[in-house]
Amino acid sequence: MSTPSTRGTSRPTPIELLAPAKNLECGIAAIDHGADAVYIGAAKFGARQSAGNSVADIHTLCDYAHRFGAKVHVTVNTIIYDDEMDDMLRLVRELEEAGADALLIQDMGLLQQCRETLRTKMALHASTQCDTRSAEKVRWLRSLGFDRVVLARELSAEEIAAIHREVPDVEIEASCTVRSASATAASATCRSTASDALPTVGPVRNSAAWRST
Fold it and tell me: What is the DSSP letter of 114?
């Protein structure tokens, strides 16, 4: 769920219903049931180990979503090593050609490459993996070139509101888990990843999440 900015006005803005999509079928179902946007993992470089999807499936989902005015955000939100960057940039190009509306990322090197080298037209969102908990960090991420900031999911409604009051000109996304697999660790600090060493580098295993309602 996200709360788009009022852009300096006092008028309330509609809440965007952003739904997770494990795969193409889930994404289509979410749109059929009224989602304004969905987020889906790419085949590589996403933080969910069991939620990778081909560019072809993402293309199909984009075509379907755009027919109904919905958007598709793609998660490529692990840390990218130097020897992975060329593959990552090829994937970004393919996702843009497929019609993706936004990328959810946490790697600042990837952000720079997308802005300066690829000059992508896709919106770039700072993933919850960036562990953003303050107005100061929102301002910093915005200064780097992010179009939207996804806050850490542990923040209370009061904390989210306070941040939004301080930075009303930045589009802030507040995650609210209704029913899903919720991570057991604080945002961006989990070490139960495929790397077995560093948090947020490898994809999240299902063992790092628990069912919640």
Answer: I
Integer Cα distance of 42 and 74 in angstroms: 6
190 Cβ partners below 8 Å, 6+ apart? 183, 184, 199, 200, 204, 208
Instruction: Select the CATH number that applies to the domain covering 18-181 from these four: 3.20.20.80, 1.10.760.10, 3.30.70.270, 3.30.70.360.
Output: 3.20.20.80
Over residues 168-177, the pLDDT tens digits come to: 877 777 655 5
DSSP string, 65-81: HHHTT-EEEEE--SPPP
| pLDDT at position 154 | 86
Are the C-beta atoms of 4 and 14 separated by less than 8 Å? yes
pLDDT tier, 54 (very low <50, low <70, confident <90, very high otherwise): very high
Ranges 32-36, 118-122, 143-147, 166-170: which has the least confidence: 166-170
Residue 173: which of 149, 155, 156, 152 has the closest Cα? 149
Q: For residue range 182-191, what is the model confidence (pLDDT) as tens digits?
A: 555 555 565 5
